[in-house]
C-alpha cells in the first residue's frame, strides 16, 4: 500500500507536466523494448496486435532487460527504473487531399509531431507530444496521458490521466483498432470510413481519468471526462461525463474475434464560448449541454490463404448533443447522428495492405455545421492501400465516393494520399 501511495503521488506530479497525445508506431518504443515496430503493430502501423495491446496496458513500461538501470536515488525505496534508452521520437506526416472539383491541398505539418514516452518509473509510464493540429493549418496542439499500471492476473490493471485536443473520450486507454481512439484505425482518412470518427464520437477534446483492466480476453474501462482541454468557463465539478467500455476477445484457431460495447452520458455546464478550447473575450452565457452516445464494435484478425487480414465494424447507435440553443462553441453544437461502418484489409505480402470500407451515416437533420460531422445523410464506399516501405515509413492511398442523401446534392469523391516517417 505504501508503494502504491508513492506511485500515485509520482503519477500526479508527472501528469501536471504532461500534456500529451498518443501517436502512431514510435521508434522510441522499439528502442525501449528491444523489438521492431511490427512486434506491436498488425500489418501496417498504427494498428495494434496482441503484444502491442499488452504494451499499452502496461502503461508503456515493458522494456528490454539489457537496458535496465539502477535507481537514480541510492537507497530509495521508489526505484525510478528508467531504461537506458531515451524514448524520443519524431513523426513526420505529409498528405495530399482533393475533394470533388475543389482544388487539391498539400499539407506537411498537420499530424506531424515530437514525442517523448515510455517507462517513467516502476509501474508508471506516459507519453508527451507536441503536434500539428490536423484540423487547423499551422496550429499546434498538446495532449497525452500518464499511466499507473500493475500486473494483474494474466493482464494489467491501472489508471490513466489524460488530456487531448483531438482524440476524444476513450483516448485514456483503448487497445482495439475500431476507431474509438483516433490513432488506432484502419484508414488514415478515417472520417470517410469509420462510424465513430464520422459521427465525432471518437474525436474531439477531452480531459479525464480512466480505470481499466485488460488481458488477452477482456478489456474493461470506466471513467469520467470533461469534453475540453481548456477548462476556462467550465464548471468542472458539474461537467464530468461518465463513460464505460467493455470488450471480449475470443481466439478460434489462428483467428481472434473481439466484440465490444461502449457508452457515455452526462451534462456539461459551461459558458457558451468555452467549449471550443479558446479564451472567452466576449459576453458569455451559461448553458447546459447534454451528451449521450453508445454503440457496438467488432474486430476480427486472422489469415486467409496465408494472407493476414483484419476486419473492423463500428456501429454508433446513438450520438446526441443537445443544448438550450445558445451554444456558440464550434465543438459542441447540437447533434443527433448515427452511423455504421465495416472496414477490411488483406495483406497479400507483409508490407502491402489492400483495403475496402463502407460507411453509412444518418444525421437526423439536426447537426449544425460542426467541424467534424456532416449535416446530411450519405453512404460512402472506399478503397485504399498501405505500403510499409520500411518498418517506420508508411505510404497510404485512399479513394472514397460519397452518395449524399439530399436530392439537391451531387455525388462527389475524396482522394487522400499520405506518407508517414517515424524516427
Spatial order of the strands forming the largest sheet: 1-3-4-5-6-7-8-9-10-11-12-13-14-15-16-17
Give the uncertain stretches in residue-range form: 4-24, 69-73, 276-280
Task: Return Rg in Å.
Answer: 21 Å
Number of strands: 17
**Major sheet:** 16 strands, antiparallel, barrel
Q: Please report which band the strand proportion falls in: under 5%, 5-15%, 15-25%, 25-35%, 35-45% or over 45%.
A: over 45%
Order of helices and strands: HHHEEEEEEHEEEEEEEEEEE
Question: What is the average per-residue confidence, as pLDDT, rounded to a whole number?
Answer: 81
Distance between the termini: 39 Å
Number of helices: 4
- Please bin the fraction of helical residues: under 10%
Structural class: mainly beta
> What coarse outline follows from CA principal-axis ratios?
globular
List the helices and strands and how they pair.
Layout: H1 2-17, H2 27-33, H3 50-57, E1 88-99, E2 105-107, E3 113-121, E4 124-132, E5 140-152, E6 155-164, H4 195-199, E7 206-214, E8 218-226, E9 241-252, E10 255-271, E11 286-304, E12 307-322, E13 335-349, E14 352-362, E15 378-390, E16 393-404, E17 412-422
Antiparallel strand pairs: 1-2, 1-3, 1-17, 3-4, 4-5, 5-6, 6-7, 7-8, 8-9, 9-10, 10-11, 11-12, 12-13, 13-14, 14-15, 15-16, 16-17
Amino acid at each position: 500500500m505504501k508503494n502504491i501511495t508513492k506511485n500515485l503521488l509520482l503519477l500526479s506530479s508527472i501528469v501536471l507536466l504532461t500534456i500529451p497525445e498518443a501517436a502512431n508506431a514510435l521508434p522510441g518504443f522499439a528502442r525501449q523494448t528491444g523489438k521492431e515496430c511490427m512486434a506491436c503493430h498488425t500489418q501496417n502501423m498504427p494498428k495494434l496486435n496482441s503484444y502491442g495491446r499488452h504494451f499499452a496496458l502496461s502503461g508503456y513500461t515493458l522494456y528490454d532487460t539489457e537496458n535496465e538501470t539502477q535507481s537514480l536515488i541510492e537507497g530509495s525505496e521508489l526505484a525510478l527504473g528508467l531504461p537506458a534508452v531515451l524514448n524520443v521520437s519524431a513523426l513526420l506526416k505529409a498528405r495530399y487531399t482533393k475533394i470533388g472539383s475543389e482544388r487539391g491541398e498539400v499539407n506537411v505539418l498537420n499530424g506531424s509531431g515530437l514525442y517523448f514516452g515510455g517507462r517513467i518509473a516502476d509501474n508508471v509510464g506516459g507519453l508527451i507530444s507536441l503536434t500539428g493540429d490536423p484540423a487547423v493549418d499551422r496550429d499546434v496542439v498538446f495532449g497525452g496521458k500518464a499511466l499507473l499500471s500493475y500486473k494483474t492476473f494474466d493482464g494489467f490493471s491501472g489508471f490513466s490521466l489524460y488530456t487531448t485536443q483531438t482524440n476524444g473520450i476513450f483516448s485514456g486507454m483503448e487497445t482495439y483498432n475500431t476507431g474509438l481512439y483516433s490513432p488506432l484505425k484502419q484508414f488514415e482518412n478515417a472520417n470517410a470510413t469509420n462510424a465513430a470518427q464520422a459521427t465525432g464520437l471518437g474525436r474531439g477534446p477531452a480531459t479525464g481519468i480512466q480505470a481499466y483492466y485488460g488481458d488477452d480476453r477482456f478489456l474493461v474501462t470506466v471513467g469520467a471526462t470533461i469534453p475540453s482541454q481548456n477548462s476556462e468557463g467550465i464548471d468542472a465539478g458539474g461537467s464530468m461525463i461518465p463513460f464505460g467500455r467493455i470488450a471480449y476477445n475470443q481466439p478460434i484457431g489462428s483467428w481472434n474475434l473481439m466484440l465490444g460495447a461502449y457508452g457515455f452520458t452526462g451534462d456539461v455546464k459551461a459558458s457558451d464560448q468555452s467549449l471550443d478550447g479558446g479564451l472567452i473575450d466576449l459576453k458569455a452565457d451559461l448553458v447546459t449541454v447534454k451528451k449521450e452516445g453508445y454503440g457496438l464494435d467488432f474486430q476480427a484478425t486472422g489469415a486467409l490463404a496465408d494472407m493476414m487480414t483484419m476486419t473492423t465494424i463500428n456501429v454508433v447507435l446513438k450520438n446526441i448533443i443537445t443544448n438550450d440553443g445558445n451554444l456558440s462553441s464550434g465543438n459542441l453544437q447540437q447533434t443527433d447522428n448515427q452511423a455504421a461502418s465495416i472496414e477490411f484489409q488483406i495483406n497479400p505480402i507483409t508490407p502491402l495492405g489492400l483495403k475496402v470500407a463502407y460507411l453509412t451515416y444518418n444525421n437526423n437533420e439536426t447537426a449544425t455545421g460542426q467541424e467534424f460531422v456532416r449535416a446530411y445523410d450519405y453512404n460512402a464506399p472506399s478503397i485504399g492501400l498501405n505500403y510499409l516501405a520500411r518498418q517506420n515509413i508508411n505510404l497510404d492511398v485512399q479513394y472514397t465516393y460519397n452518395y449524399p442523401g439530399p436530392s439537391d446534392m451531387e455525388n462527389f469523391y475524396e482522394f487522400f494520399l499520405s506518407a508517414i516517417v517515424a524516427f
